[in-house]
Amino acid sequence: MEDETTNTSGWAFVAVCVCGLILHRPRVARVRPVTNQTASVFSASPCRSCPVPSAPSAPSARLGTATITNMRVFTDYLWFNTAKRQEFVRITDEIAAIVKKSGVAEGIVLVSAMHITSGVYVNDWEDGLIEDFQVWLEKLAPAGLPYRHHQTGEDNADAHLKRTIMGHQVIVPITNGALDLGPWEQVFYAEFDGRRKKRVVVKVMGM
Amino acid sequence: MEDETTNTSGWAFVAVCVCGLILHRPRVARVRPVTNQTASVFSASPCRSCPVPSAPSAPSARLGTATITNMRVFTDYLWFNTAKRQEFVRITDEIAAIVKKSGVAEGIVLVSAMHITSGVYVNDWEDGLIEDFQVWLEKLAPAGLPYRHHQTGEDNADAHLKRTIMGHQVIVPITNGALDLGPWEQVFYAEFDGRRKKRVVVKVMGM
Amino acid sequence: MEDETTNTSGWAFVAVCVCGLILHRPRVARVRPVTNQTASVFSASPCRSCPVPSAPSAPSARLGTATITNMRVFTDYLWFNTAKRQEFVRITDEIAAIVKKSGVAEGIVLVSAMHITSGVYVNDWEDGLIEDFQVWLEKLAPAGLPYRHHQTGEDNADAHLKRTIMGHQVIVPITNGALDLGPWEQVFYAEFDGRRKKRVVVKVMGM
């Protein structure tokens, strides 16, 4: 009898440990291309005698019946090498594709030019307006003036000024898994000193 | 006796399962208007014989005595239909109210015009300066020029340019549950082609 | 015998509770200077008879073998009191130091002027270009005009306009624990009405 009670208490211990182990079984976060830091989610299978629902799908995880959705941060880069010195390129679809790849359903995406003679802006996808922008920028920040920056051997001071007017980054909200843009909003890359390789960083953050 | 020990081991199992169930009892995230994605928080009541403190208040949750504060993302929209074509509207209080509604105490709020002939900016709440802005924008980006965009039937190219100068979005930091603004900072909606329904997205992110 | 089985079932209960307590032992989040809201991470030591790995290092925490990395939000402020009314100050290193202090490895940092006559921008660290910016801003938004804002007793309307051109805030992505900047990107504070104490908020968000 003493053996049996010892056995019982031992069994209770095994039960505690098995439950503990099962409840805390780790789950590997999805590995993503480029740079992807996803807060590791964990999945918990129920103790065999507990009425806990079935396994979760990413990005949520269940601990018993509790769902924990963790933060995701995802990074990608877009490369440009425009044929002309000044060129505006629509990149809405590329941003949407990166957001989809990130798995973020609610959050924001930062789109930021990494070179200081190019910009990123949101406006109309209409060729006439794009020409208006270029004419207007030439008036506000003309090329060919005797800029001091040119004493360094550079000839692109106007590109630095133009990118300042247009802005070098935008944040697009992500709602229900999609870019939360207005009816005519389009994301553009604005090159003011192209014909060489340049980069835009796209940082997705949310859950 | 065998029955009783069996009963005991069964009791041990029940204890394990009851504890497991209680510890992992889910807690429904607060349902919010519009779009609200809150990482579900979970609450854990103590095992009846364990000295674990009482239940938590949102947005934190307790697992035993450990507090887990999860990420929150909250989305809302502001609508505008200005009487005049060009109008600047202070929206600081509306943004603060949305942040309060979100429950986010630490994070950021993105305020972004969803129409490409309006903007959002932060500056002084002083009528003289607002008039200065409007006079200045008319000088930098005049209405009535033969813009190419007008060949599409539009007459608002200057509104696209003006909103580019003013900016179409701002991020306001949220610290200790409030907008972390400087002494004179105010958030404004800048309409350059009004007299119709337009929208601003407000995306709160934090914890 | 009855006593002993009672004792056994009591022992099972103690085992459950000890395990529960150990598994849910709270861990105090690192306290940081200024304002630091880190979602409290929790650490779990193994039940003495369960094969669970050793304790985690911040910012991750282990529950059994599962790693949970929570969101971090960190706030700091930079103060300026420039000798000249208009002055551009490089602040890249200060921002990098704050990001390091925050412990955020993946995320974003918002750098935002809290005074409405100063700005924050990203561009070249080249004295010639900085002079070009100042000459150019004087052309686009001249000082000394009869601005309506000056009827309030102020004399700095041009500073409000200049900061609008340059922008008052930037977001820098954080990747692998460092500012994810392009080869020539530098963060600047742009003062347009200095010689008095002014502040920039730096908000780090990520994990």
Q: In brief, what are we looking at here?
A:
The structure is a homotrimer of 207-residue chains. Chain A is of the alpha+beta class.
Task: Explain how this protein is built.
Three copies of one chain form a homotrimer. Chain A is of the alpha+beta class and 207 residues long. Chain A contains four helices and eleven strands. Chain A has helices at residues 2-23, 92-102, 127-140, 157-166; strands spanning 35-38, 60-63, 66-69, 72-80, 87-90, 107-113, 118-123, 169-175, 178-179, 186-191, 198-206. In chain A, the strands form three sheets. A six-stranded antiparallel beta sheet of chain A has the order 1-4-11-6-8-9, with helices on one face. The first copy, chain A, has a three-stranded antiparallel beta sheet with strand order 5-10-7. Chain A has a two-stranded antiparallel ribbon with strand order 2-3. In chain A, a hairpin with a 2-residue loop joins strand 8 and strand 9 (178-179). The first copy, chain A, is elongated, with a radius of gyration of 27 Å. The relative contact order of chain A is 0.21. Chains A and C meet through helix 1, strand 6, helix 4 and strand 11 of A and helix 1, strand 3, strand 7, helix 3 and strand 8 of C.
Largest interface: A-C, 57 and 62 residues
The percentage of residues in β strands of chain A lies in 25-35%
Broad shape of chain A: elongated
Q: How many helices of chain A? A: 4
**Which whole number gives the mean pLDDT of chain A?**
79
Characterize the quaternary organization of these chains: homotrimer
User: What's the SSE pattern of chain A?
Assistant: HEEEEEHEEHHEEEE
